[in-house]
Amino acid sequence: MTIKNVRDHGQRYRPRMACLKKVENVVLEMQDPKTGVKSQTQRLVITTIPHAITGEDIVAWIANRFKIDATEARAMGTMMVAFGYIYPLQDHKRLMLKPDTSLYRFQTPYFWPAQQWPVEDTDYAIYLAKRNIRKKGMLELYEQEQYNNLYKWMNHKWDFIVMQAKEQYRAGKERKKPDRVVFDCQERAYWVVHRPPPGTVSAMDYGHDRMVDPNMEEKKTPDYYRRIIMFTQQCIMRPRVKSSVSIGALVKYTTTYKEHDPFLHACLPSNPWLTDDVTYWTLNMPNVEIPTKMRVERWTFSFGELLMDPRGRADFRLFLKKEFSGENLAFWEACEDLKWGAAETMKEKAQQIYKTFLARGAPRWINIDGKTMDITVKGLAHPHRYVLDAAQTHIYMLMKKDSFGRYLKSPVFKETQKKAIAPEPQRFTETQLEQNAKRRRPSLSPIILRQQEEEQKAKLAASGPVDITQLCRFTAPVPHLAVYTGICEAQSTASPGFMTLPNSAACPSPISVAIDSTPASERRFDGNGGPSSSHFPSIAEASVSEEENQPPAPKSRMALSLSRLLRRGCNAPSVFASLSPKCAVASGGGKVQPLGVEPLAQPQPRRIANFFQIKVDIPPECRIYPIDSEDEEDDSPDTARGGVKEIICPWETVTKQEGTG
Amino acid sequence: MPLCNNKVADDGTSAQPLQEGKALVDSLIKVVACYRHLASCVGGCTDNSSLRRDLQQTRERAQTLALSCRNHLTARLRDKTLAEAERKETELLWVAFSSCLELLHADMCKVFTMVKHFSLANNSAMVQTGIQGGTTEVAARALSLPDLQGAGDGSQTSSMEGQEQSQLEQEIAQVDRTLEDMELKVNVLRWSVEALGPQYADPVSTDSASLALLSIDEEAAQGFCRRSQMFAVMMLCGVAIFAMVLSVCVVFLV
Q1: Chain B within 8 Å of A12 (Cβ-Cβ)?
Q2: ipTM (interface predicted TM)
């Protein structure tokens, strides 16, 4: 069953087609025998057919009626022909008004482009079948193709279509010959308007349908007035800018972007919408190796442009990596991810970001001022999507004022600029254009694009070279949270006995405790007999394998540990802070502890716990758990968690004091 | 022009119920085709009360046919003892019938809006479409009547028009309901129905005359140029022949 018109609930109101009703009135005015357009008879071989009008008469009538000049009248006449109210008798495929003696005729109201009757494919199939009945092989190529398509789609009705075509043909033969000719012309004109031949512009392209008929008079109910009141109030409340300022901004924008606008300037190599050649799109893919010159030029316009373009962002990331200040961009990206990400992981993400970037002693600590930090921390007590907005803006401004300028002068950018390609404009002949049109294929499905994006993100997270001050479990890629953390490259700066990390100087003091603890941790690690060397690739492999094999594991482990902690209660008097040694993702000469090897090192943490004298009151939920957190598998009632550095999340202390735990 | 009435099966002598169903559907298709031709004249210069009457009568015929068709096909499809091949055929007929009814519904809705706009009683301006003759033959074909109906009363009052309109509205609603009922009562899976007929309809007859008229339409624009070209060529040929004759004469004389 085809979708029926009556049930449409008005979904077919075409906003730009509100002119149709007005054109209908004009056409009816033209019919007046006294004041309308002069009609003549068309002489064909055997018969004459009345009611033919010449183009010049139409133009003259319109110019007279609306008091406009000839060119405008001609444009209006062309519009009427393009909509299908008047059809040309000669050269029926070109829907334009020629202001000479070429003949036109009015279309019968049955074939008028009405707003509420969609053009049915069934009718089109019947029409094409009828034309085929009249003379075999009379269909043009595009009509032939459409006929074949319709045969495929509407195969179940095809017998009906053929029968109906025959019957309509036979019924037509009952009429007089000139009437038959006129009817054929009318039908043909109707279908030229609604199924335009390829390469022509159709006047019926109108954009989205609307729920409301713009021509209908709206009843003045209290609801209507309420809406009007709200609308005008909002208009008044809008902030206003001096026109000199706004015009200045517009002028600046247009001068900057003039050459990049595909409407105002030719697209290089060619505009795919015009020539059906997709080179432009392939050259400008989001993560293409070598960008085009125009694209690189756009990056210089503003920092926002650079960040919005994925290739630009990648370039900027590379530059920051060379400068060892990649944490700003990573933080910004993490905040974007929080803002646009799924709601269920939002709280975790916010905490993750805090621990990675904002907390004291965080591995990738970013530099924001005290006030913003205050606001952020307060907000994180009740995290929502925009809780990190203030910090993000601060970092954005920092990058914009500082790094962006340096980036534009940097060798990275200059290199990219040099390598950028400037494609030659393509010139296609008519036949080539037709071939291109035939070779049109749909682009990649959005599902595939999304998969590629995810892969890209995972790759970045797993192997992106990023500066990292300290390593711990949360800086290893957590599979279910795409926080932009990464693992440090294998910089074996530390001596084999030490598991200190690079940039440790940047870390706050608790790390010194960690340094003291390294012998113990080394001991512990040695006891495990894990894989021999943890270099960068193995880290990547391990983390990747972690990701692949045990994606739910970290989460469950955290949950397990949380529950265990809660069971033990908050009597963790000697919970100690020691960050680096417990990180299984080690750099330097440490050993990688794959997650599976935990149970072995069980007894040792307890020993280490007694080793330290630092007592820190740390709430249970907030920890950075070491990856080899055998503690969590451990069901022992031993409260000493041993050697775990806690990054204190202040908001959680607040909640704890409010009575949790 | 002779009317071919061989598709109408109102005598019930056809034994096979399948043939009967096919005949019913065929006649419905014929009536709907005629209705479309009639509807295309509404609002044009030949729109008059007889056209409206023809429309109404064709509509009624279509509805009676539709009703009997529906009953017949519904009964057959709900019959569980139907053979597989016959069921397939009946399903094909069912699909044809529902599409036909949808076309009729669409045409009726269009006529309804047009009639509101182009009211005969109020003498609204009709569009000069170039149609000259009447459509009585088409209506006669639809109603399967060998003779043409006489012209009815010439004028229509607005009250009569109002009545007709409300009647039309009711009929549209009825067809609507019929379609709904059809979908509810019988479950025919559209994707399991396959067309048996050919993709291209065979030419019924080579109607060269109207074809010629139409093609002349298109060539009229180029006609002048061609004519002038031919004229020039002929002139040249004439001049060439004349020159040859002259030279032959000269040679001959000399």
Answers
A1: no
A2: 0.77
